[in-house]
């Protein structure tokens, strides 16, 4: 079974044909889709969406890009939502959380400090409730790792990983697996392809980050670019099999097993 470990299926880009998108993914063998929240405003949305189709799962968290508008009560509400969701088998992680030092507005000293505050607070929630995390990692690997080392093993997925081999090893040592998706499909992405080829297979999972990070084969459609879909994880799995020179079936089995290990609450497909 293919699992898209990171898909913003609630995004407005899917409003016109969301059901058809889910059906297309299923036709391509995608049996699980993890939908992370990004802020308080979509906690309920991702939960309801995950419950609307077979294989839907969700995570709750505050994305670093949403941190500038976040307020203290948002963390209180997040904890309340986590507590309410602990008995929900479709709830699998805290996420999407992390740090973003790429977006200019998030690189100011004030925003870096606020991001770290929210990231640290959400790691504490993960530790308190025994949950893994879905990490947003963009030019922030070392600071993310610093906070993780201060806590017992939390584990989870480092989404859209694009750091160095040494940083990858450190995340793996801390109990994380690494998400690979559309960026890997571009021939110029030499570093990501090296990681995908050289890292142990038990450290890799598949993702789309749909509607973002479309794979190379979708081409360019205007300034915004093409919309990515969860069904594209099938092509990503095929490319990973080619890069590693193994059978596609091996990639599908291994990546699904790795996902279940990283997200223990993700069991079954109902």
From TrEMBL:
Chain sites annotated for binding a divalent metal cation 1: 6, 8, 96, 209
A Pfam family reported for this protein in Swiss-Prot or TrEMBL: TatD_DNase
InterPro entries assigned to the protein according to its UniProt record, in alphabetical order: DNase_TatD-rel_CS, Metal_Hydrolase, TatD-like
Keyword Metal-binding set for record: yes
UniProt entry keywords in alphabetical sequence: Hydrolase, Metal-binding
The keyword Membrane appears for this protein: no
GO molecular function: hydrolase activity, acting on ester bonds; metal ion binding
Positions bound to a divalent metal cation 2: 136, 159
SUPFAM superfamilies xrefs: Metallo-dependent hydrolases
Family indicated by similarity: Belongs to the metallo-dependent hydrolases superfamily. TatD-type hydrolase family.
PANTHER family: D-AMINOACYL-TRNA DEACYLASE
Record protein name field: DNAase
Protein's organism: Pollutimonas subterranea
């Amino acid at each position: 079974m293919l699992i898209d470990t990171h898909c913003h299926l609630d995004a407005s880009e899917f409003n016109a044909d969301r059901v058809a998108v889910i059906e297309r993914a299923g036709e391509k063998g995608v049996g699980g889709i993890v939908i992370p929240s990004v802020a308080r405003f979509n906690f309920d949305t991702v939960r309801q969406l995950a419950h609307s189709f077979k294989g839907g799962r969700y995570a709750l968290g505050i994305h670093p890009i949403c941190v500038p508008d976040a307020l203290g009560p948002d963390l209180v509400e997040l904890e309340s939502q986590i507590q309410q969701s602990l008995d929900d088998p479709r709830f699998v992680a805290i996420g999407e959380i992390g740090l973003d030092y790429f977006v200019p507005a998030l690189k100011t000293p004030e925003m870096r400090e606020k991001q770290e505050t929210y990231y640290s607070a959400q790691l504490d929630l993960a530790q308190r409730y025994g949950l893994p995390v879905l990490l947003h990692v963009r030019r922030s690997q070392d600071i993310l790792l610093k906070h993780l080392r201060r806590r017992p093993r939390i584990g989870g997925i480092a989404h859209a990983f694009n750091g160095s081999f040494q940083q990858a090893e450190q995340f793996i040592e801390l109990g994380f697996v690494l998400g690979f998706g559309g960026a890997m499909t571009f021939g110029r992405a030499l570093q990501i392809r090296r990681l995908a080829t050289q890292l142990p297979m038990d450290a890799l999972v598949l993702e789309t980050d749909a509607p973002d990070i479309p794979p190379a084969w979708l081409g360019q459609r205007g300034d915004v670019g093409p919309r990515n879909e969860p069904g594209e994880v099938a092509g990503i799995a095929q490319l990973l099999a080619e890069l590693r020179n193994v059978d596609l079936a091996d990639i599908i089995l291994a990546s699904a097993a790795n996902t279940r290990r990283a997200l223990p609450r993700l069991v079954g497909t109902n």
